[in-house]
Amino acid sequence: MLLSAALFMIGVIGVMVRRNIIIIFMSIELILNAVNINLVAFSKELQNAVGQVFVVFVIAVAAAEAAVGLGIILAFYRNKETVNIDEMNLMRW
Amino acid sequence: MGEAIAFYTIAAFVLGFAVLVVSTKDTVHSVLFLVLDFLFVAALYVLLGAQFLAAIQVLVYAGGIVVLYLFVVMLVNLKRPPEAHQDPNRRGKLGFALSAAVLAELGAIAAFGYVRPAPALAQATQVLPVSGNTEEVGWLLYTSYLIPFEIASMLLLVAMIGAIILAKREL
Q: CA–CA separation, A37 vs A43, rounded Å?
């Protein structure tokens, strides 16, 4: 549990601190992994396999998110030649 | 007791690699640390009795997602400063030492395998089918959670099409 919380915090700090969007995406993966560890730990604690089923779903959603997110990064990089989120102000009004 | 030691060791590795992922300057190094982090999380799953999830973790995360990240990092060619190769021999020596270690390990495995090959192998094949973790998860997945499963597959299909359309240069 503590490990999961610590990993989650590292992921959140990564999202907050870094300015490279690829590293931010990797931090999000770390957060999802923390959630997965928590689910598996509870699944073992309660002797109930439903938690592992949910981990399968989380992994599927994480894969989808990574594919779409990286597609967006590629499209954005083709337009603006940068991966720095401070310059991603296209939709600012 | 041994389980606790293994858990804390793996936990320390997971956290250490997570910190490295977030703090490394070079994006490629960051991705590689991410692979190691995922592998240790898979080891943690094995420790927690979720062998099926460990296999999925290695296949999907360490095999698929990370390759995707690496591709994007390579495509998005960041203007890195030219790498400071102050000592070109250093990596060669390191690689030589590592390969020597692997060779010694393989030799040791071969040597000890010839000494007592049969009983350990037979034991392993006997132990393997008993752990019904994959069966349990699969049973739940295809009975109680059939509709969420189908929705997840639909989501993956939509994400795949979306990613292709996003990454195409022109429609």
A: 10
> Has residue A83 been placed in a domain?
yes
Query: Is A9 at the interface with chain B, CB within 8 A?
Result: no
CB contacts < 8 A (A, B): 155
Q: Is residue A93 part of a domain?
A: no
**Complex ipTM value:** 0.77
Please tell me the total count of domains within chain A. 1
| Topology, domain B1-79 | Four Helix Bundle (Hemerythrin (Met), subunit A) (1.20.120)
In tens, the pLDDT along B7-44 reads: 788 878 878 887 887 787 778 888 888 888 888 888 88
Are B21 and A26 in contact (CB < 8 Å)? yes
Whole-structure pTM value: 0.72
Cβ atoms A21, A73 nearer than 8 A = yes
Facing residue for A53 by CB, picked from B137, B158, B162: B137
CA–CA distance, B132 with B71 (Å, rounded to integer)? 37
